[in-house]
C-alpha cells in the first residue's frame, strides 16, 4: 500500500512540473508575440503609414497575366501580358512578399476597427459639461453668445452654409467659417455640426438643453440634440471680408424677365461688384448678377444655368456704351454664400433591393464622385472600409455597415471574383493611371488634401509603389469587366469636363429621380471638401522611362479589354506618353 502511494505521489510531482513548464512556455510565447506585434506597429508608424491612411488591396487578381500588387515586389511586363483576360498566372515564390511598407489588408482592417471602436466608446462617455457653462465661456470666443435655440432638421432657421467636423469642431472654427461666407449668425449642434444664417431662430430653449461638448474643444458647448448654441459674428465680418472669394462666373445673355428669374434685386447708382455681392450675401443667395446699375440675386436655374456663356467683350461694351444692347447681357458672380438646395442628405428609409458598388482604383476620384452622388440624390453613400477623416467631414455612411443597404451605393477598391459578385451592379470609375498613381501616393504620405514631399518622391518607395500599384490599376478594371454583372463605365476626365451629363447618367443608373435645380446646385458645389488646393507642380519628372513602359503596356491592355466588351475605349490622354 505504501509503495502504491509513493508511486502516485511521484507521478503527481512529475505532472505538476510538466504543467508548470507548459504554463511558462505558453507565457513566454505570448510575450514574444506581443513584442513582435509592438515592433511591427512602431516600424509602420516610423515609415509614415497610419491606419487611417491604410490602403486596402484587392484579394483577387485576374486577366492578362497581371498579378495582385500584394504579392509582387517588383513586377515586370512579360510577353504574355497582352495575351488575354482569361488566363491567370501563379506568382513565383520570390514574388510572395510585398514591399516592407505595404501592410496586409486584414491587418489594416483590424486596426481600423479597433480605432473606430475606441473612438466610439470614448464618444459615449458621460459629458462633464452642462449647458449653463455656455454663458460663462462666451468671453473666450470672438462672437457674441445669443443663446440656446430649438432646431428643426426639416425646416432649419439657420439654413445657410452647413459644415461637419465630428472630431475637431470648435466654436471659433464655426464662427470664422460663417463670417467668411458673409453670415451674421453661427449655430452649433450635436457637438460637431455648424450652421450659418442671417436670421435668428424663433424658438428659444433652456440654457441647460445645450449640453453637447464640442468635439475639438473640451469645456465648450456646441448645442445639443435638436438644439443650437447660437453666436452673433457680425464683429468678425470686417476681418473675414478680406478673405472672402467672389468668383467671376462669366458674361451671359440676360433672361427675358430678370425680376421673374431672380427673387431679389437692387438698383444702385455707381454699382460695384462688391456692393452687389454684399447685398446678395445678406439675402443668403449664392449668385449675384449685374446689368448696368441693376443687381439681381438668386440661384442657377433652368432659366439661367450658367452653361451658355457669351463673349466677355459684349459685357464690357455694355458698360462702356449706352446703346440699345445695354440690356442684352449681364455679368454673373458667385458669392461666398453656399448653395444649400442640395446639401440635405439622409439614409434610405427602406433597404435597397439593388446592391450597387462605386468601384475605382485608389486615387481615381472616388471621394469626389461620392460627394457628387450624395448631393445629387440626397442619400448617403457607404464604404467597404472605414475612413475616419471622411466620416469627420460629413460622409456619415462611413460608419454604417457596408452591407446594410441603407446607402445609395458603396465605395470599394476591391477586385477579385468573390468581392465583385457580391454586388448586383456597379459604377466603375476609371482615371488616367499616371494621375491616379500620383494622387494615391500623395494621399498615402500627406492625407486627402496634402502633397508628398520631394524626399518621398525621390526615395526608393516611389518606384516600389509604381511597380506594385500599376499592375493593380489594370487588374482592377479587368476583374470588374470580367465578373461585374451590370456596369456603368465613367471616366474621371469625362466627369470633370462634362459634369452634368455624366452625373445624370450616374443618377439614372442608381434609379433616382432628381430635379434640374438640384443638379445645378451640385454643379455650383462641385469641388466639395476634399480637393487639393492647386496642382503643386514638381520640377522633375517622377516617372522614369522604365515606369512609363510598364504603365503603357497596362493602358493598352485595359483599352483593348474595354473595347472588347463594347464599352468606349480609354480617353486619348491615356495613350502612351
UniProtKB/TrEMBL annotation:
Family annotation (InterPro entries): P-loop_NTPase, Sialate-O-sulfotransferase, Sulfotransferase_dom, WSC_carb-bd
Entry-linked Pfam families: Sulfotransfer_1, WSC
The keyword Repeat appears for this protein: yes
Keywords: Repeat
Keyword Repeat belongs to the record: yes
Entry's Gene Ontology molecular function annotations: sulfotransferase activity
UniProt organism field: Nyctiprogne leucopyga
PANTHER family, A to Z: SIALATE:O-SULFOTRANSFERASE 1, WSCD FAMILY MEMBER CG9164
Family under the similarity heading: Belongs to the WSCD family.
Protein name: WSCD1 protein
Gene3D superfamilies cross-referenced by the UniProt entry: P-loop containing nucleotide triphosphate hydrolases
Domain WSC: 142-234, 245-342
Amino acid at each position: 500500500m505504501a509503495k502504491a502511494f509513493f508511486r502516485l505521489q511521484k507521478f503527481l510531482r512529475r505532472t505538476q512540473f510538466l504543467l508548470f513548464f507548459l504554463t511558462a512556455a505558453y507565457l513566454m510565447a505570448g510575450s514574444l508575440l506581443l513584442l513582435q506585434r509592438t515592433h511591427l506597429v512602431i516600424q509602420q508608424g516610423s515609415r509614415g503609414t497610419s491606419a487611417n491612411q491604410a490602403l486596402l488591396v484587392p484579394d483577387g487578381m485576374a486577366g492578362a497575366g497581371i498579378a495582385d500588387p500584394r504579392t509582387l515586389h517588383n513586377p515586370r511586363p512579360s510577353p504574355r501580358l497582352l495575351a488575354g483576360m482569361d488566363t491567370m498566372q501563379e506568382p513565383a515564390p520570390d514574388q510572395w512578399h510585398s514591399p516592407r511598407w505595404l501592410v496586409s489588408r486584414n491587418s489594416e482592417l483590424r486596426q481600423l476597427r479597433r480605432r473606430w471602436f475606441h473612438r466610439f466608446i470614448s464618444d459615449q462617455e458621460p459629458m462633464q459639461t452642462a449647458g449653463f457653462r455656455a454663458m460663462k465661456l462666451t468671453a473666450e470666443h470672438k462672437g457674441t453668445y445669443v443663446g440656446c435655440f430649438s432646431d428643426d432638421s426639416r425646416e432649419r432657421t439657420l439654413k445657410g452654409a452647413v459644415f461637419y467636423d465630428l472630431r475637431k469642431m470648435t466654436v471659433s472654427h464655426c464662427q470664422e467659417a460663417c463670417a467668411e461666407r458673409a453670415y451674421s449668425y453661427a449655430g452649433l449642434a450635436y457637438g460637431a455640426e455648424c450652421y450659418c444664417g442671417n436670421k435668428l431662430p424663433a424658438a428659444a430653449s433652456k440654457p441647460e438643453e445645450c449640453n453637447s461638448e464640442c468635439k475639438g474643444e473640451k469645456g465648450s458647448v456646441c448645442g445639443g440634440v435638436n438644439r443650437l448654441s447660437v453666436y452673433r459674428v457680425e464683429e468678425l465680418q470686417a476681418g473675414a471680408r478680406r478673405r472672402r472669394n467672389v468668383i467671376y462666373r462669366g458674361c451671359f445673355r440676360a433672361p427675358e424677365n430678370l425680376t421673374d428669374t431672380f427673387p431679389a434685386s437692387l438698383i444702385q447708382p455707381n454699382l460695384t461688384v462688391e456692393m452687389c455681392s454684399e447685398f446678395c450675401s445678406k439675402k443668403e443667395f449664392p449668385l449675384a448678377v449685374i446689368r448696368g446699375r441693376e443687381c439681381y440675386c438668386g440661384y442657377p436655374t433652368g432659366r439661367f444655368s450658367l452653361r451658355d456663356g457669351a463673349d466677355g467683350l459684349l459685357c464690357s461694351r455694355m458698360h462702356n456704351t449706352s446703346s440699345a444692347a445695354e440690356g442684352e447681357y449681364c455679368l454673373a458672380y458667385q458669392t461666398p454664400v453656399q448653395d444649400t438646395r442640395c446639401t440635405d442628405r439622409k439614409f434610405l428609409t427602406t433597404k435597397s433591393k439593388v446592391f450597387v458598388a462605386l468601384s475605382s482604383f485608389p486615387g481615381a476620384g472616388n471621394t469626389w464622385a461620392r460627394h457628387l452622388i450624395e448631393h445629387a440624390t440626397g442619400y448617403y453613400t457607404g464604404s467597404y472600409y472605414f475612413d475616419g477623416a471622411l466620416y469627420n467631414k460629413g460622409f456619415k455612411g462611413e460608419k454604417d455597415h457596408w452591407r446594410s443597404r441603407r446607402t445609395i451605393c458603396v465605395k470599394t477598391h476591391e477586385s477579385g471574383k468573390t468581392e465583385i459578385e457580391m454586388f448586383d451592379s456597379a459604377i466603375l470609375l476609371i482615371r488616367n493611371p499616371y494621375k491616379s498613381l500620383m494622387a494615391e501616393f500623395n494621399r498615402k504620405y500627406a492625407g486627402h488634401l496634402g502633397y508628398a514631399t520631394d524626399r518621398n518622391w525621390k526615395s526608393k518607395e516611389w518606384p516600389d509603389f509604381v511597380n506594385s500599384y500599376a499592375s493593380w490599376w489594370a487588374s482592377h478594371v479587368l476583374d470588374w469587366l470580367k465578373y461585374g454583372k451590370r456596369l456603368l463605365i465613367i471616366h474621371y476626365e469625362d466627369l470633370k469636363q462634362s459634369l452634368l451629363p455624366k452625373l445624370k447618367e450616374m443618377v439614372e443608373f442608381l434609379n433616382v429621380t432628381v430635379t434640374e435645380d438640384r443638379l445645378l446646385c451640385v454643379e455650383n458645389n462641385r469641388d466639395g471638401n476634399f480637393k487639393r488646393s492647386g496642382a503643386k507642380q514638381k520640377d522633375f519628372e517622377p516617372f522614369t522611362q522604365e515606369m512609363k513602359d510598364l504603365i503603357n503596356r497596362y493602358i493598352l491592355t485595359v483599352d483593348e479589354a474595354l473595347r472588347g466588351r463594347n464599352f468606349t475605349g480609354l480617353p486619348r490622354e491615356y495613350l502612351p506618353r
